[in-house]
Amino acid sequence: MPLVLVTQDGAVRTLALNRPQALNSFTTAMHGELLAALDAAAADASVRCLVITGSGRGFCAGQDLGDPAVAPVRVDGQLAPSAEQPDIGDLIEATYRPLALRIRAMPVPVVAAVNGVAAGAGANLALGCDLTVAARSASFIQAFAKIALVPDCGGTWLLPRLTTRQRALGLAMLGDKLTAQQAADWGLIWQCVDDAEFPAAVAALAQRLAAMPVKALVETRAALDAGAAADLDTALANEARLQRRLGRAADYAEGVGAFFAKRAPTFTER
Ligand code: T3D
Fold first, then answer.
1. Most buried of 11, 48, 188, 200, CB within 10 angstroms?
2. How far is the CA of 102 from the centre of ligand 1 (A)?
3. What is the whole-number distance in angstroms between the Cα of residue 140 and the centre of ligand 1?
């Protein structure tokens, strides 16, 4: 059984994490399949929007804590620190770091469709996508402190950018469950949708993004990320550089032409 299910509807590709019996928690093998699926989507010109979701009742419970890549070894039958302990830093370097960077560099908009609980690295996978839509029954848990770790998969970068210092620290230190509605109210996610409307809402958003000028949307993501750390003049210079390039591209001509012709534009670039 694939650990990542890949489906496509028009120009929208959906990747569903597929270890429902363990709430789609990450094993090294699932990381490998997800990165390969992201690379394949990035290379396929028919894909204009990517959706990441979970199979079954969960989105993703973060790292599989029983995976040999992280599990503490048994000493005299007890789980305990040991020289044999796998190096979790090596795992993070090889898996969550490239995953978080890959999503941020996708050449198409990325929607997280959070169908259920998103915990640990699963929460930060969801929060690191471009637009995060959650079913009302879903939740977000920065579970790391409960196992004496710090947020990873980009959480230390994302949380202070998405919310206030107090809320970021409260979430990360306490590891309490944040409901989908709270996450929306706090501005951490784009939208919380009633469960019955969730699949249709995700599909409508993804199809809408796929019909937009995705090259400009991807440049917008990069420019906002760069702008958050830049001074005003640097951001203005970056805007001029991007508009110079985008203004010579086919999608700009199409957008302006469609405006004056009073018709819907057909964007083709990626
Ligand atoms: O060393 C490192 O970990 C480095 C990497 C760090 C990145 C991280 O993501 S660290 C954070 C890891 N994740 C967690 O700590 C979350 C652990 N899970 C939970 O706290 C709970 O499962 C949830 C709050 C997410 C959901 O609770 P609930 O009551 O809805 O479900 P459940 O009964 O706890 O879980 C259902 C099954 O999934 C259960 O298996 P079973 O008993 O039916 O056979 C449970 O063991 C399994 N499961 C859930 N999360 C994980 C998991 N199995 C392995 N690893 C998990 N993370």
1. 48
2. 24
3. 13
- pLDDT tens for the chain, 270 residues long, are 999 999 999 999 999 999 999 999 999 999 999 999 999 999 999 999 999 999 999 999 999 999 988 888 777 888 877 777 888 999 999 999 999 999 999 999 999 999 999 999 999 999 999 999 999 999 999 999 999 999 999 999 999 999 999 999 999 999 999 999 999 999 999 999 999 999 999 999 999 999 999 999 999 999 999 999 999 999 999 999 999 999 999 999 999 999 999 999 999 999
Q: What is the 3-state secondary structure of 42-74?
A: HHCCCCCEEEEEECCCEEECCECCCCCCCCCCE
The domain locations on the chain are 4-210, 214-261
The residue among 11, 201, 2, 50 whose CA lies nearest residue 115 is 201
Q: Which of 23, 95, 153, 177 to mutate to test the pocket of ligand 1 (most atoms within 8 A of CB)?
A: 23
CA of 85 to the centre of ligand 1 (A): 20
C-alpha 240 to ligand 1 mean position (Å): 46
Closest CA relative to residue 155, chosen from 141, 166, 176: 141
Partners of 75 in beta bridges? 78
ipTM for the complex?
Answer: 0.98
Which residue, judged by its Cα, is nearest atom 48 of ligand 1? Answer: 22
Distance 25 CA to ligand 1 centre (A): 7
Atom in ligand 1 nearest the alpha carbon of residue 64: 55
Residues having CB closer than 6 A to ligand 1 are: 22-23, 25, 61-66, 70, 88, 117, 119-121, 141, 143-144, 147, 149, 152
Bridging pattern class, strands 74-75 and 78-79: antiparallel
